[in-house]
Amino acid sequence: MRSTAAEDYVKAIYHHTEWQPEPVTPSQLATRLGLANSTVTEMVKKLAAAGLVHHRPYGAVELTPEGRRLAVRQVRRHRVVETWLVERHGYEWDEVHDEAEILEHALSDRLLESIAASLGDPERDPHGDPIPAADGTVRRPDAVLLADAPAGHEGAVVRISDEDPAMLRFLADAGIALDARLTVLGVKPYSGSMQVRALRGTVDVGPDVARAIWLAA
Amino acid sequence: MRSTAAEDYVKAIYHHTEWQPEPVTPSQLATRLGLANSTVTEMVKKLAAAGLVHHRPYGAVELTPEGRRLAVRQVRRHRVVETWLVERHGYEWDEVHDEAEILEHALSDRLLESIAASLGDPERDPHGDPIPAADGTVRRPDAVLLADAPAGHEGAVVRISDEDPAMLRFLADAGIALDARLTVLGVKPYSGSMQVRALRGTVDVGPDVARAIWLAA
DNA sequence: GGCATGATTTCGGCATGCCGAAAAAACTGC
DNA sequence: GCAGTTTTTTCGGCATGCCGAAATCATGCC
Ligand SMILES: [Mn+2]
Ligand SMILES: [Mn+2]
Ligand SMILES: [Mn+2]
Ligand SMILES: [Mn+2]
């Protein structure tokens, strides 16, 4: 049971706890994977039988150590591929995800490591997500969600969620990229949006954006 | 109907007529693809319904123009990947086939062309097989099968079949590689093997090898 | 404690690719 | 031309992943 489907499921489960550590429910998984709830229930049962996840009926889904190993491996593959596409093939950071989603299952370990080596064994991908090492080691940078940062907080952007390519383009236009320095000016009451100073000027960002950007702590 | 299975089938059909132009039978396809005859019969029916092949029951299988286009595209992808693995990732020529067999289905057109461009748009792969151009143009070098070459014939190796990795290693050890100059010394009666002079000395090659090597005409 | 609501699971079904066994057709040698 | 062999096709079946509809469970509210 290490099909490409299984690889995507454990990756989605891992992903959910990577920045906020709450266990993931089947319906959340279904949403992220774009599948029906019933499909996820069935697959989770198979993953549990294969020893990749823990799951009691009607409960949340959690990775076993073996499932986590597979997930971390898959995350490494995904992020190495994304980095390679940007660094070596002229992709923009909002164009890499779909291609990586497929390639991550197709490359041999040997080829993936050769590509990683040719990139100098990068430690983060184009969105700032940490790339696990080949031995499974993961380093999580200390970071604060922009939405949680108090007025006056100032810090470099260390991660931007790659969920929404359109948002990535919006941010690029606004001059907000990895390593850009941001200052939180304040929260606009009732609008839910924040005022932020970037190098290029002041920007209003809505709650979706504020939950997609992490600043150095 | 352009699944990875369909891509492999049309490629196998194309492959059969690439160097000897006889139409391919279902059982030959089954052998090449490592599948049961019944499986091939069924898939051929589906390919015919999709307009990729012509097939009358109990007859041979031939590509339609559309099937040929898909096959040529797939051959390009396979050979570009093999070339890339050898040129950029330190693979030996006997190690590339299986990885290419998978990757050829996973790369986007954009990425494949970016890789091809980074290699200088190569015209032949590590075994000497011609790489079709991106527009579908195919150039076939004039070549004679070693098995068909008369005693005294002398010419450069322009192609070595990549069917059998062990044979490729044997040939590499014997100093027979792409562009090596060979002279046919003669056929050993009753043994079916040929005597051939290479740079490194004289070699006896059996019929399998003699049918795997093409010399410049 | 009972009940409405939403999440989860079960169930029947579908698509794709594959197989072996059996039936049908096509060759082959005499 | 015909019997035996080989090839091809048909048939029933299996595995993987997916779906929608219906049943079941958990929960929170009164
Ligand atoms: Mn991604
Ligand atoms: Mn994927
Ligand atoms: Mn090959
Ligand atoms: Mn293939």
From TrEMBL, chains A, B:
What molecular functions are annotated in GO for this chain?
Answer: DNA binding; DNA-binding transcription factor activity; protein dimerization activity; transition metal ion binding
Q: One Pfam annotation, family name?
A: Fe_dep_repr_C
Q: Which SUPFAM superfamilies match?
A: C-terminal domain of transcriptional repressors, Iron-dependent repressor protein, dimerization domain, Winged helix' DNA-binding domain
Predominant subcellular localization, coarse grouping: cytoplasm
Does Repressor appear among the keywords?
A: yes
Q: Quick one: a GO biological-process term for this protein?
A: negative regulation of DNA-templated transcription
Question: Keywords for this entry?
Answer: Activator, Cytoplasm, DNA-binding, Iron, Manganese, Repressor, Transcription, Transcription regulation
Q: Which domain of life is it from?
A: Bacteria
Protein's name according to its UniProt entry: Manganese transport regulator
